[in-house]
Amino acid sequence: MSQSLLERTATQPAHLGLIDCDVHHALRSPKDLHPYLSQKWRDHLTTYGSRRPIPFISSSPYFKSAPALSRKDTWPPNGGPPGSDLKFLQEQLLDRYGIETGMLHLLSITGMDQRNQEFGAALCRAINEWQYAEWTQQDARLKAAIVVPGEDAEAAVKEIEHWAGNKDFAQVSMVTHTIEPLGRRRYWPIYEAAAAHDLPVGLHTSGNNGHAVTPTGWSSYYAEEHHEVAISQQALVTSLVCEGVPARNPTLRVVLVEAGVAWVAPLCWRLDQHWKRMRDEVPHLDRPPSSYIKTQMWFTTQPMDEPEKPEHLTKMLDWIGWDRLLFATDYPHWDFDDPGTAIKIPLTEQQRSMLFRDNARAAYNLD
Amino acid sequence: MSKHVVALAREIPPGNRKLVTVRGRPIAIFNIKGEFYGLLNRCPHQGGPMCEGVLTGLIQSDDPGTYQYSRAGEILRCPWHGWEFDVKTGQSWCDPEKVTVRNYPVEVAPGQRVVQGPYVAEKIPVALEEQYVVVEV
User: Fold this and answer.
1) What ipTM describes this predicted complex?
2) What is the pLDDT of residues A49-69, one digit of tens each?
3) Which chain B residue's Cα is nearest to A303?
4) Which of B10, B32, B78, B102 could be bridged to B50 by S-S, CB 3.0 to 4.6 A?
């Protein structure tokens, strides 16, 4: 379908080198990993399969309001689920929007939350090999994340060191629904290794730990749950900050992906308030919590908030800091943000450059 | 504004649609129970190809646990974010005052009237005995 003139004008100007900080590639099936798994683990995958701490049998937590969680027009013409065909992704996303760099986040299959942790580590290696061979080496615009088996910190550090220095990998990624909150000391070696290798840690909602996404149990509707992942990301940020992860690793950079943005402001206000009152409990925090968030953390913009009065959103973003924002489309998901039309608030030239490109260059240290 | 012949009426049976481009605008023509409606194929939300979405019905409820399903085939869901639009009016279901998609007057004209004009026929041979779908854009 050809674009109308109006549509063309909206999407094309000034996106010189747009950086998309959340692109979802996909396996056609876990069998795609076979070339990257030893015979033992191929057999294991076939015989025992993926065993994760999910309480509902045969009920995917991720079928949500649209098949494969995706826009209906993203199913590749030659089969496979949305995101599984590089060529189609190139046409429909990278070429169409003039994307200079796309940060890949694989959501399924996950290695980190496999109950068999050895298998999980093997899966992570296979996933990284697959990403390298079939994605980042095929299109220089795509950058992968080093997927690590974070519940076993030693194995995770090994995986980081295996890929560190390889320019195809722009960050380290972990799932966000973990056995303990991600700020806890069992995960510290991973942050230390990431910081040592100048790799940001990218945290995209994913994984299962047997708990509901909310602190109070399993909600009924996807309409609730879609927002609740943001709530669990807030808990994650709180944990990282209060446990001192950024404080102990002053060069560590963390990117929260698809967590929402507007909540960052009131969270910062609250944490700062509590820190003033309870500093003796967290003496390892030598500055207000918000200062760690505003210097060492970034937030992708998708799904962009859509308040009735655009100026309310502008005020929130002004407070959070325009340097904290990373544009993302979340292609191919149904709540995709179109680069030309998703940001409905007026932007200055500088804000536009920061949001669509320059902040990502800083967060990911891209040259 | 001018009138454009975009299809033979029999090309679009009830329940079907045809995507056309008229004066540079992507428009979809829907046949709902024999009546034709035209909508711009660009969702007012974020510009997605809304006319390629699923045609569904309207779900309403007075109480949790009960619902009424009506207007089957008359509600279009954009394939991107799922916004629902009334095909007949172009109004979005959740915010009809503020969010609408441009709709275009559509009529069915017999071949004789089309030949006499003021219709612009685009690549469709005009035969007097046929019925044509005409969009005003």
Assistant:
1) 0.76
2) 999 998 776 665 555 778 888
3) B81
4) B78
